[in-house]
Amino acid sequence: MKKRNMIGFLALPALIGLVLVFPSAKVDAGTNTKSAVATKLWKTSGHADKTDEPFKHWNTASPAEIPTTCAKCHSTPGFLDFLGADGTPARQVDKAAPIGTTVECLVCHTDPRKGVLRVNSSVLFPSGYVVNNLGPEGLCMECHQGRASKATVDSNIASAAAPNDDTPSTKIKFNNIHYYAAAATQFGTFAKSGYEYSGKSYDARFSHITGYNACNNCHNPHSLQVDITKCNTCHTGVNDFKDIRFVGSQVDYDGSGDLTKGMFYVIDSIKAKLLATIQNYARSVINKPIAYDGATNPYWFNDLNGNGVVDSNEADSSNSYASFTNRLTKACYNYQVATKDPNGFAHNGKYLIELMYDSIEDLNAKLIQKTDLSAMSRTDEGHFDGSGQPWRHWDSGGQVDAGCARCHSATGLAYYLANGTNQAEPLSNGMLCTTCHTAPPALRQAPLVKFPSGLSVTLGDNSNLCITCHQGRESKSSVDAAIAANPSGTFSFKNVHYFAAGATFLGTEVQVGYEFPGKSYIGRQPFANHGGRFNTCVECHMSTAVVAEKHNWTMRTHNVAEPMKENCVPCHGNDISQTFQGADPEKFDFEQIRPGNIPDYNGNGNTRESLKDEILGLENALYAQIKAYTLANQGSRALYDGNTYPYWFKDTNNNGVLEASEMTSANGYKLNAAALKATFNFQLSRKEPHGFIHNARYVAQLLVDSIQSLGGDVSKYTWR
User: Fold this and answer.
1) Domain residues of the chain, as ranges?
2) Which of 54, 73, 198, 327 has a CA-to-CA distance to 647 between 20 and 30 Å?
3) Contacts by 385-390 with C-beta closer than 8 Å and gap 24+?
4) What's the pTM?
């Protein structure tokens, strides 16, 4: 197994292996040196090989011509016909093309001698997705987009009208995406070339750094080759594209336990799992064994002897598999999608991983002997999870709104730090290295961070970049401003926003939580007990080993979801049992942390429960108080659902249970001033799921004071 080089900060390799080209035409190469060089390079490419299947397939046809359905990409006359360069209407092929050509200079150049490129700035994908404002890559993408999509598979299934997802039907056909659909892979969920399952979200267009985002940026436009030395600028020491793995992709996609292998090998491993699951389903659910041969159309065959492979006597169209079910044809299509873009690991590896993972999961639903997914990861950590809502929320609008772009685009943070304001930004597929780095390893600078309260702080290191986003969007000051504008009115809920870790960590220093008059609140003092260590975001989340002294640490990874457990067990043991001797980091659970000096925050008498459970107890107590208060003072209970905007809803039938019919924007609860303050603090605790680590005492103070503000009894909270 080849390993990837762990050094390097940029994303997956440049768009390797698109097999795209701007080839030569029939010109006198001697009249133009550049043309001669281009011709020489082109002759080494697949686009120049008349003996290869893409160009010889129709030589023995009768008549010997390339049909209109194929001519666009398999002949020069066909492509010119499609573009309308032959005087016929554009965007369609009007007549069959003669055999004998390849993809020649005139496909991409109006004047090959001078290198003048054709313009094809808009491309329509099989799914109906349109990409506009393209450069030369628009020519490449016309052919390297596949010929099928999720819509094709859904249409196939609908036409077959099988009674359920697991009844085989000869009417259900295998849909072949076609070959080298690199652009379709690259554009991910935008193009929807893969079969995307209902209720799932998927990575969008794979974005590389500026200057390496188009086909011709990475591939020599004539030879099609990619110069790996250009990749070595960031992916240092790599000699094989297959060994590259983005330094942010530190999750175990294939469940092997090996986080060093290149993305090619990861995808190959998951493909093997998917094929095994497909064969298990066909054998055990349909009772019709299936086998795959990627070199022989129609690819899927009856496995007559049940040995799992297509033998020579089975590789015949008369033995093609004809027992597809709805469920099986989806999975087989995704297997083909991952197979027929052999360099998909570079074009958008994570999209392929998601498609295959979901196919396995869907097949598992009907299997007794399931494929084990427990050790596998479908997506990256949140910063790099392009399928996640923080990155996909704006897709329908085509850009990230200015008010959100600082934290929800790859480019917004840099603009904000440089200009002090926000602007709308392009859609992103997660963060890029250049989100935080000017030129890796050099980091952008955020010397002072302003919070929603108007207060500014510094953590004294690169953690300032973290808290520029992880700070929330509302605060005590915005709640007070809303109330002051309408003292006797009711108010829409104020949402602090999500993962406001900096706000809880710093506590009263930034006053994001609703702090009640006459009460005192804690700042970041709890972390003084760390002895000057692990008291910033970077020191906890990106430190390799126990810190001997402040700042004596090295960066371990960009998967910052979880700090290094090795750093915690010397003081925290394995769990709330506080077993320190021989503490095993693998057994350590952050959710079981409870330092020995922690009081009984939730007043239930249990001083052995975790900090997380202490805070959960207070959240439950506050929620009960909010329901009782709103019923008594506003005529109906305010009920909460943390997954549905605007989160607080009227209990219209007064049964105390939030039902689907009540979870609508029109039924959003209008809160009076007291309820607005309390619900704000409740949401701060809920939407900062690790507040129990970042500053449990501050969160507890906010929750208890909110209970008291609504008339609740807080006498048992003696720690205050």
Assistant:
1) 29-49+102-288+323-364, 396-440, 445-720
2) 198
3) 385/430, 386/188, 386/203, 386/204, 386/206, 386/350, 386/428, 386/429, 386/430, 387/189, 387/200, 387/201, 387/202, 387/203, 387/204, 387/350, 387/354, 388/201, 388/430, 389/201, 390/498
4) 0.91
